[in-house]
Design a protein that fits this description.
Blueprint: E1 19-22, H1 39-49, E2 53-55, H2 62-71, E3 72-74, E4 80-82, H3 84-93, H4 96-104, E5 108-121, E6 124-134, H5 137-148, E7 160-163, H6 165-175, E8 180-183, H7 203-207, E9 216-218, H8 225-228, E10 238-240, E11 255-258, H9 264-273, E12 277-282, E13 293-295, E14 300-302, H10 304-309, H11 325-332, E15 346-349, H12 353-361, H13 368-381, H14 384-389, H15 393-400, H16 402-413, E16 417-419, E17 428-430, H17 436-440, H18 513-516, H19 532-538, E18 545-549, H20 555-569, E19 577-581, H21 584-598, E20 606-609, H22 610-620, E21 632-633, H23 636-646, H24 650-659, E22 662-663, H25 667-678, H26 680-689, E23 692-696, H27 703-712, E24 718-723, H28 738-741, H29 743-746, E25 751-755, E26 757-758, H30 763-773, E27 785-786, E28 796-801, H31 804-818, H32 824-828, E29 844-848, H33 854-863, E30 868-870, H34 882-891, H35 899-915, H36 927-944, H37 948-956, E31 968-969, E32 971-975, H38 976-979, E33 984-989, H39 1008-1022, E34 1025-1034, E35 1036-1039, E36 1042-1045, H40 1050-1053, E37 1060-1062
Parallel strand pairs: 1-2, 2-5, 5-7, 9-10, 12-15, 18-24, 18-25, 19-20, 19-23, 21-22, 23-24, 26-27, 28-34, 28-37, 29-32, 29-33, 30-32, 33-34
Antiparallel strand pairs: 1-11, 3-4, 5-6, 6-8, 7-31, 11-12, 13-14, 16-17, 35-36
Helix pairs in contact: 1-3, 3-4, 5-6, 12-13, 13-15, 15-16, 19-20, 20-21, 22-25, 23-24, 25-26, 25-27, 30-39, 31-33, 34-35, 35-36
Length: 1079
């Protein structure tokens, strides 16, 4: 009996008879996959092949998941089958010989999906594919919910996520302890755990502390078990094979044989222990498209030794060769070729029957001739796998003819010709010598035509090197000789562009700067690792101090080192220090850095926002402020109710809040100011308590905040303000940059220190930024000196887009290139050269002036299956569901445990409550809103430990939304205002058009001051970029209900043309020839 036969003679499954499982396939919802990949079609093809168990594939895709729920019925433990009606319809279309077996033992399905993860670890971009298996649809629902918070699951059946491999495994185990993960095609140069381009040197390295939960690996089409046996670190894992089918006909080109009960848990145990793993069906590995080394565009196909001799470079173009699986195995192998471990499972190498028929007939494997013969063979002899392995040759000869019988006999003997695949090109496996078939049709072929060969057979004629196309006047995003996505090489046809201007000569605005510049030391002292001007600022004596800190000059570093220096070296008591920031996130960062510098004593330093400082003053003086001791901050519902009752009467609104012992968030600064103004003794008390005050982002203070600072710090007090007036962009919130500019008038003998050495951005980016802000700068002798002197730093990319859609596509194409290819499609098409990248999704930000610009960019990224998150300075309490959870926690009695556990419990209660609408649940909050709120509250809940009061207070005082899942990596979308204080290796600044930058509303003419602030906003956007900056503008854009012609932003005119690299083809394309052709 065939070891590959799917069932016994009577059709019933048997433990004694191995069955064939193909557990890595795709659905019609995966990209570049056949539309025929439906469950009925898969079942029909699996029966023809001889498969008993299929993976479902793609269960994360919403439409496919719904189809699985509707079409599948539970079968053996952890497995599913088609509903009876669908099974009968499939069996009706099968030949009688196969239909009878199918009726006795219906096809089984195991829930599976392939996930692509692209992320950064150890300063390298990692790209790894994984196979996930879960035992039931409820576990799949939990898994999909978790991943849905990380990336877009609807754009591709094989989603791309910015998620560490280790974290994906953790989510799998959280969805079900019986779930398991198998690293997919582990040797593929890209997108695999051990790949030469973006993988690791060991499976354990990939999955870190959870590596013990990995017990099987998929070898992939370009390797077979004998290659993997040479690497001893793989002895701990069972080797499996699957087809990775993108069409039904590709099923079982590789598969795994099990000799177990036909159920999920028995198969999992066989993979874990090896007991019951009978063997694998394999491609000849040379047929895999990444087996050998090479460069497809130049037609170079080499063995590993030759690649090493050439230094890994293509002899035609000089680019790095794509190092194939064979070379990678040899790099990691610690055993000789031919090593076979004891009790090794059986390995069978096969060629698809359609390919054999195609070779015999001299036609393609998808031709009508092959299709007809294949149907005849299966009808007469049974499943394809049986025909290839155990059907007697005389039966094959009787039905298929002499040449087919000879071909299959040679296949069983391993007597094949092999031309290895390379760099995305499939290899060629053939059974006859060139010209042999012509003679063989008239005579009996012999059995000793040639010996088995690997690289010593004639290789098909290689393509001549591609001639470079004539350069167009403007180029699109990089391709060509450089491995960088933004090469500096200019088009030959482009007019000569001026060289980037030299940085300006040092200005003498600080007489001590020339003496201190370059005096940085590397030591262990507190200030030793600061640069000269940072050290001057950090060690300045007491009294008013204004630090003008340009973008990327180490503002937070300088501020924290100043506080630490005063406490550690000048004996300032930590409890006498008050550090004020504008966001809770910035306050937490400041506190964290101080703890790193000072240790536990940093806890005595008061660090908070203006609102939290005001709340502290009110809590300590509630009676004097006319408030009850237990007053609290009104939530959204309470504020809305009071405002609805009071209307526009502010006094009535405040009275309603006070009647309920409530305070509006916006009163947390104004009430302390009024309290201190009316009580001079409190002013003296707080001045004595906080003798040293430090204010971050001083250019953003408003009138009330300014008055609070003047009350807390006397004119000659120890007030240290740091910021940059050229980054004053919040006037719409009431911020007034004039308070920064008049600091020396407000405070006696104020010292001034300027930080100009930029550690963030490359020289071209800084030069562009300084030139852009120059016409309206508020900083005398504005300069930013690059600390990074990289002569090869890319210029600023400038893309003139034809439309909004073209601009969005430019962003997608460039990201694809920056990360070194999003998928095999990018690489195989030649669109991406596959360079090793250190750019990941979280390194990339897309900035825009107005929120309306985000939608087309986000849609384009989602269509391209690129993980994306839209960030803002939104407050937690403004999100639906947060207020409900806060109220539930405030009024719940008897709950114990961590805040995070209580938040999740409250979420469960509220989700059930809002699932059934009642008269008292008319707020419009849905169970989905509740669970989203639980997710966004969880990071803050973890930071608060068991302190519920602190948790509720932070929500009330404006704690901001964190990323939905801290494990996720995604391209960040945010407005220019929300980008303030952030930095990214790669920044796209889109919509650089007059009307958006500067913003001009219809029927209005912005004032000179408004234009100046818009320019500062542009300056902020440019200086968010560290390594690469792209600016783009469109010719036409829909604004205010109608499409308008656009011109580039006038702010771009201030930047020297030599700092730009023009990208894209600005010449109009020739229209397509629409003439109907007869031939």
């Amino acid at each position: 009996m065939s070891p590959l036969r799917a069932a016994t003679a009577d059709g019933s499954p048997s433990v004694a008879v191995p069955f064939v499982a193909d557990l890595h396939i795709h659905s019609k919802y995966s990209r570049a996959c056949s539309r025929d990949l439906t469950l009925p079609n898969l079942t029909w093809w699996a029966r023809r092949k001889g498969i008993s168990l299929l993976g479902t594939g793609d269960f994360t895709h919403p439409a496919w998941y719904d189809h699985l729920r509707e079409s599948l019925r539970p079968a053996e433990p952890g497995l599913y089958r088609l509903n009876p009606e669908a099974e009968r319809e499939v069996n009706r279309k099968l030949p009688p010989r196969l239909a009878s077996a199918a009726e006795a033992a219906p096809m089984r399905f195991m829930l599976s999906v392939e996930i692509s993860t692209i992320y950064k670890r150890d300063d390298r971009t990692r790209k790894v594919h994984h196979l996930i298996y879960l035992p039931d649809l409820d576990a799949v629902a939990r898994f999909n919910t978790a991943l849905g918070r990380i990336g877009n699951l609807g754009s591709d059946g094989r989603p791309i996520l910015g998620l560490d491999s280790r974290d994906l495994l953790e989510i799998t185990l959280e969805a079900s302890p019986d779930g398991y993960l198998v690293p997919a095609h582990i040797w593929t140069p890209w997108f695999s755990a051990l790949g030469s381009k973006s993988g690791f040197d060991a499976i354990a390295d990939c999955y870190a502390d959870l590596a013990e939960h990995i017990f099987a690996v998929e070898t992939g089409l370009s390797s077979d078990p004998s290659m993997n046996w040479r690497v001893s670190s793989l002895d701990a894992y069972r080797l499996v094979s699957n087809s990775d089918a993108h069409s039904p006909a590709a099923l079982a080109r590789e598969a795994t044989l099990f000799a177990t009960d036909l159920d999920y848990f028995a198969i999992r145990e066989a993979l874990r222990t090896g007991n019951g793993l009978h063997g694998t069906i394999e491609f000849f590995p040379e047929e895999g498209k990444y087996h050998a080394d090479g460069h497809r565009l130049c037609g170079v196909n080499w063995a590993p030794q030759r690649t090493r001799e050439a230094g890994g470079r293509c002899p035609e173009c000089g680019k790095p060769l794509t190092v194939g699986v064979l070379s990678r195995v040899e790099d990691l192998a610690d055993r000789p070729e031919g090593y076979v471990p004891p009790n090794a499972p059986r390995v069978v190498h096969l060629i698809q029957l359609a390919e054999i028929l195609g070779e015999v007939n001299g036609v393609g494997p998808k031709s009508k001739t092959v299709e007809g013969q294949l149907n005849e063979l299966v009808s007469a002899l049974g499943p394809e796998l049986d025909i290839l392995t155990v059907t007697p040759p005389e039966d094959i000869r009787r039905v298929g003819g002499e040449l087919l019988a000879e071909a299959i006999e040679r296949l069983r003997r391993g007597q094949v010709r092999r031309v290895p695949g390379y760099d995305g090109e499939y290899g060629v496996i053939s059974l006859f010598e060139p010209g042999e078939l012509t003679a063989a049709r008239n005579s009996q072929p012999g059995d000793d035509l040639f010996a088995d060969a690997l690289f010593d057979v004639p290789v098909p004629r290689q393509r001549p090197p591609a001639k470079p196309k004539p350069a167009s006047r403007d180029r699109s995003t990089a391709a060509g000789g450089s491995t960088e996505p933004a090469p500096r090489r200019r088009s030959k046809a482009a007019p000569a562009e001026p060289e980037p201007p030299l940085p300006p000569a040092p200005s003498p605005h600080e007489p001590f700067e020339p003496m201190l510049a370059g005096m940085e030391e590397v030591g262990t002292g507190l200030l030793d690792r600061l640069d000269a001007m940072q050290r001057v600022a950090a060690s300045a004596p007491g009294g008013p101090l204004l630090i003008v800190a340009g973008p990327g000059t180490g503002k937070t570093r300088t501020l924290t080192h100043r506080i630490a220096y005063l406490c550690a070296e000048l004996n300032v008591y930590p409890e006498h220090c008050l550090a004020i920031t504008f966001t809770r996130r910035a306050a937490e960062e400041l506190q964290h850095r101080l703890e790193g510098l000072l240790g536990p004593v940093a806890e005595d330093i008061t660090v908070g926002t203006f609102h939290s400082v005001g709340l502290t003053i009110l809590r300590e003086n509630a009676k004097a402020a006319g408030l009850p001791a237990d007053f609290r901050i009104a939530d959204d519902t309470e504020r809305a109710a009071a405002r609805a009752e009071a209307g526009d009467d502010d006094a009535a609104y405040v009275k309603l809040l006070r009647a309920a012992d409530l305070v509006d968030l916006d009163e947390l600064v104004s009430l302390p100011v009024a309290l201190l103004r009316d009580h001079p003794e409190l002013v003296e008390r707080y001045r004595d308590r906080w003798r040293w005050i430090f204010v971050d982002e001083y250019q953003d203070v408003d009138a009330t905040q300014y008055e609070l600072l003047r009350l807390l710090s006397p004119p000659d007090g120890n007030l240290c303000a740091i910021g940059d007036p050229d980054q004053a962009i919040y006037s719409f919130r009431g911020a007034d940059v004039s308070y920064f500019l008049r600091f020396s008038q407000d405070f006696v003998d104020a010292r001034l220190v300027r930080l100009t050495r930029n550690y963030r951005s490359s020289a071209p980016i800084l030069a562009a930024a300084v030139q852009a802000i120059a016409p309206s700068t508020l900083v005398r002798d504005r300069r930013l000196d690059p600390a990074r002197l990289d002569p090869g730093a890319p210029l600023v990319g400038r893309y003139p887009a034809a439309s909004v859609a073209d601009e969005a596509d430019f962003v997608v194409r460039t990201i694809d290139e920056l990360v070194g290819g999003l998928s095999h499609r990018s690489l195989d098409s030649g669109r991406i050269d596959g360079h090793t990248s250190n750019v990941s999704f979280s390194d990339i930000a897309v900035l825009y002036r107005t929120d309306a610009q985000a939608a087309p960019i986000r849609d384009a990224l989602a269509r391209a299956n690129i993980p994306v998150q839209k960030r803002s300075h939104n407050r937690l309490r403004d999100l639906p569901g947060v207020a409900a959870i806060a109220r539930e926690l405030r009024h719940a009695d008897g709950l114990g445990g961590s805040v995070a556990a209580r938040v999740r419990l409250a979420g469960q209660v509220l989700a059930q409550r809002y699932a059934t609408p009642t008269l008292d649940t008319t707020s419009g909050v849905t169970p989905e809103d509740i669970w989203t709120a639980v997710d966004v509250l969880t990071p803050l809940a973890h930071r608060c430990g068991d302190d519920v009061a602190s948790f509720l207070s932070q929500i009330a005082t404006g704690a901001e939304v964190d990323a939905l899942d801290p494990r996720a990596e995604a391209v960040t979308l945010l407005t220019l205002h929300a980008a303030k204080g952030l930095e990214f290796p790669v920044v796209f600044l889109v919509g650089c058009e007059d009307g958006l930058l500067p913003l001009r509303l219809p029927g209005t003419t912005p004032t000179e001051a408004e234009i100046a602030e818009e320019r500062r906003l542009f300056f902020v956007g440019l200086t968010r970029a560290q390594d690469r900056l792209y600016v783009s503008h469109v010719r036409r854009r829909l604004r205010h209900g109608q499409e308008r012609e656009c011109v580039p932003s006038p702010f771009l005119d201030a930047i020297d043309a030599g700092l730009f690299e023009r990208l894209g083809d600005s010449a109009p394309r020739r229209p397509k020839d629409r003439q109907l052709r007869l031939l």
